[in-house]
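Example A, followed by Example B.
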Amino acid sequence: MIDPVRLHEEALDRWVADPPLDVETDGGLASLILAEHYCNWRLWSLENEARRPDRDDAAVAAVKREIDRWNQLRNDLIERIDENVLAELPPADPAEAEQHSETAGQMIDRLSILSLKIRNMRLWAALEGERPSARDWQKKAAQLEEQRDDLARCLRRLWNDCMAGRRYFKVYRQFKTYRDPGLARTPK
């Protein structure tokens, strides 16, 4: 299994120094993980843009539509990650194996978001310098690092259990209605 935490951290180091306009995927697992992480990175900055108090309603609406577009791509990539991971695993016997409620792609998505949060907390700690508030940001970063380590360990265990036939998961389609032109209105 590829180490998504390492991929996420290395990508953030590169992207901060030289922000890409997009991340291409060759369809392999590592490229799918990076493309999905890029979606979260873009979403992070778009959410910050939408929260700016100096933005008028039209600008916020435009950003929210862009958020929807990136969110759809993110969900599509999570599904592709799951398809790719499942293709690498031996078939499980549902009568013998326990079903895992969360997919590998969903866990990798959560690891991506945790990487972004950790980087943000570290930046805040650095900005605060020697102030007592810097210690608060450092504590928050440490808690998030622990959460990320725990989740990465759970992902490795899921992978090992799936390889041994003890667990399995399915691809869960998200069916996001905000991107379906036939569902552009809200049901009454």
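Example B, a separate protein, is given below in the same form.
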Amino acid sequence: MAIVRQRTTANNMQKNQHAWNALIFILYPIAIVGAYLAIDRLIGIRNLSLLSTFDIIIMTLATFRIIRLITFDKIFGFARAMFMDIQPDGTETKPPSGFRRAIAELMECQWCTGVWAGLFVIIVYMITPIGRFAALILAISALASFMQVISRRIGAGTVNHPSSPGSCV
């Protein structure tokens, strides 16, 4: 009897979670339409065709950086923690179901975060001058992180590198 109750509860939680995931899925096209209308009203949607290769690269790098911030970086850990359950040993786990779980899953998935971040970046980049400035800062940060990864890969085989055997650092 207890096993049947557990299965029923698990199935109900899964159905509930599907509903939350569907809601977030439905909100995305609504956000796209809202962004389209806002951009069209404020600057004219035809101006999107005037985006240069430079603009696309800046928005791409800014989106990459936002994805990293949301899904991995320590500085954004406070936001991820708002949607996680803290265990007695201090580890974070996703809630069993509900809105918080849906957002936690969205935040841990680079691909999911990317579509939302891309939409956010294009809206802010197109509508406000400060958005272009912020995207430029994020793009420079993204390039700097690429350079950091490359320098770590190059330096990994050197004696003075922290990950090398015999290193003093």
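On Example B: DSSP finds six helices and two strands in the chain.
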